[in-house]
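hey can u check if this looks right to u? its 508 residues, i copy pasted from the old doc so theres a chance i mangled smth
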Amino acid sequence: MVAVFNKELLNWYLITLKLKETVDANCARSQPTTPGGRAPPLPITLGDTAPPPQNLNPPPPQDSPWVISIRDKLNQARQLECLSPWAKLSIYRVPKSLREGDEKAYIPHLVSIGPYHRDRRRLRDMEHHKWRALHHVLKRTGHDVHLYLHAVKSLEERARSCYEGHIHLSSNDFVESLVLDGIFMLELFRGAVGEGFRTLGYSHCDPVFAIRGTMHSIQRDMIMLENQIPLFVLDRLLALQLRLPEQTSGLVARLAIQFLDPLMPNDHQLNKTDAAAFDPLAEGGLHCLDVFRRNLLRTGPRPVPRVWLRRWSHRGRVCDRRRQQLVHCVTELRDAGIKFRKRKTDRFWDIEFTNGVLKIPRLLIHDGTKSLFLNLIAFEQCHMDCSNDITSYVIFMDNLINSEEDVRYLHYRGIIEHWLGNDDEVADLFNKLCQEVVFDINDSYLSRLSQQLNRYYNHKWNSWRASLKHKYFSNPWAIISLIAAVVLLVLTLAQTFYSVYGYYRPSS
């Protein structure tokens, strides 16, 4: 009996072990695995009927490739936000919305200045002349090229922060381009308006460093927004050439405005006295385009903008051409009795309206005027610390000019002088200058004048008087016809009166 009892006990023990192995296997399949792939231990004791404990804090799931890519983009945005010195930007890429009007107006045709257009194939021929300019400077001054490279190297970080976007040039290539372009520009400035090219050591037959036809194309390229280098780099290079301990305190700016003076949109010739009195650097000159713009607006206080046209605009800055309408066209203003006169001043933007007479200074339009105005407008659109004076003027003239008849009359009054093919091209030029331009009509220096002009236009008596003058006093024959009609009317009335008078009071 003892042996049988032990055998039964052994069987129950084996059955219990088998049952425990089965329960352990089933629990292992139902529980989540750890990152190592092993199931967490489940302590189960014989006779324990409680359910196995659940994992209340499961580990976070691994990121999918989509989430990983989003995290990478956010990291790039964070780095861009930290590395982009927005406050120091002064040389911009022209926005695509402005480029759609005329791509060629923003791209240099002969010489590249700065890193944006450095690799354009058609501009590579001028690179040889840049190296010739550097050779002339080193030969003339006796300096080693390392002096200029080291000086500009110390300004590299400051210069890079002036350009919008990432510059895909190594440190050495970027410094080399600044030195080459800067020396080239200074040689042009000093040769054209300074000592002269012959004094600097160039032949009178030089294809670039001489007063010839290519100089005008180079001047036009130097006022393009994407074709600039910072002014402080030019100051430093000129200071080294002249062996000055400090920067040249506006000398480069004064040379630049004299060199670019032929591009002025009027017939005023800047003399050296005017250039010496004007110091753009004292006002924070940034580059050649900024200096040229400051020279355009150099004298005379501009009227303070006045908030107006509330019924036309619910927002300040708009790009809808219908809401950029400040004034009516020339033909409509003439019908309202407004007269046009040429104002004798060299400030082409200085427009005046008094007693029904709109006085506009003379504007000279040539083949480079479109590119000039487009780049000035683009700079005012991009640079937040810049006023919109040039944009305001161009939009005002665009409002005045709707057709070739408007251009013809302004030309007749001596206000517009152009070298283009016909008057229709001038009208088309102004009508396309401000496409996609964001303009604040409440921040224009011409807002007060436009308000006065519209008030005069909306006065009915002025329109009636002008209509009478145009119909009956426009030429001598019309005046004679009017006088004859009045005399005939008077005689007819007199004849009628005496006929009636004689009927009722016959003579005795």
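Residues 318-464 form one domain.
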